[in-house]
Amino acid sequence: MSEEGHHHGTDEALLERLSALVDGELDVRETRVLVARLAADGALRARWERYHLIGEALRGRLPRGALDPGLPARVRARLPARAPAAPAPAGPAAGRRWLTAGLALAASVAAVAVIALRGGPAPERRAPEVASVAVEAAGTTRWEHVRPAVERRLNGYLVSHNENARAAVFQGVMPYARIVAYDPQR
Amino acid sequence: MTRSAEAAARWGAAATLWMALAVPLAWAGEGEDPRAWLADMSRALRSLDYQGVLVYLHGRQLEAMRLVHRAARDGEHERIVSLNGVPREVLRDPQRVTCVLPDSRAVLVEKSRPRRVFPGTLPLDLGRIERHYALVLDGHDRVAGRAVRIVEVRARDHYRYGYRFWIDEESRLPLKFDVVDSAGAPVEQMMFTHIEIGGPIPEALLHPALPRAGYTWYTEPTADGGEALAEAGQWTVAAAPPGFELTMRRVGRLPAGRRPVEHLMLSDGLASVSVYIDRPDADEGFMEGLSRMGAMSAFGARVEGYQVTAVGEVPPVTVEMVARSTRRVRR
Description:
Chain A is mainly alpha-helical and 186 residues long. Chain A is built from eight helices and two strands. Helices cover 45% and strands 4% of the residues of chain A. The radius of gyration of chain A is 20 Å and the shape is elongated. The termini of chain A are far apart. Chain B has four helices and 20 strands.
């Protein structure tokens, strides 16, 4: 397993398993093995993240509020340099909704799964868990903390600002992506 | 994935055609100058035909949208449609920008203005930009299967955001772009998960898909917008963050706005902040304090009975400083 890691996970069988993981088709044991692999291999993890984005985007069924883009980076920072070959079973994570790997993937096909460690300092040789983060969203694509009337006013300002700020070159390379993304249902 | 294969095949044909036509677009950034890469990128965004799926991430939100861009003789034509959630849609042409918002059964129409090209029209602009940002050519990478060059625009202080662009080596379009804070952490990210470059873009792709019957239209009134504020030009920003200078002052009506407002704009050469001075109706109410949407920040303050709102793709500290230091100078 560790030898394959040197190839940055580019061999075909591995990519097939990765694809199966993305599609939720791996069993719990295989998932654990592959997740340990992902934890140790940055290139493989990047590819796995990309598979999710591309697949979901093309299918036009990206989940609402389900991916924290900062999370993979945060997890990466806390992961041990190498994941243990035989991951220890994860204990209960009090106050968290992290589910174990197979369960999370089976339970939530539409949810984008991210690798997550429990909060607090990561214990030695702790295996990462796959977490479904289809939980309440912290971020928002609507103006925060304002009443609907104020929100309408802010949107008017935003459109006006976008057009006038086009002189500012990079001001929103795609300034209207935000308006399109804006969702009052949240 | 069949779509990608199709797209790749079409791209092959389109690329050949496009390369043949691209002689006047010979890229400046063959070497190692980040300025040239940025100039090429801003020109490519404006002058190429492209369409694709764009993913927008911020906080825990992830949204996908379809983008179609056509560079026509009369200017840019663009359409962005949300692929998940409420099917919002924005259409731009050289005359107007139209936002169709099904959730509020509203259509906002504003006069459009042409996109400016980096580094700006004045030779002075680049020097001004580099006082506040470091332009850095970074490594090579791959996005959506294509070779890209990473170019960073690093903010030199915490009053502005920086940018990170993954620029397609062939077309010079940014395939991925992040807005980052002064510590380098992403504030929001956009990425093409799929892109087709090269035309022609059929006219039909630029037509709105949404039925617009039963919608309320909010359009910017023509000419002066009726009873323009008699006391125009009576506001100023007393203490803007370093580098931000007043670049525009106007009085006008906004889409969806029932009254004329005074609008000031400040810029450091890249980032900009708008200040709107308004008198909200009793039922609308005031906004005091901070609100954010992605990399956009807005800060409201009440000044002499007026609503002052600073809005921009800048950190909260910047809009707060601008809003709090906006003063009435003439009465």
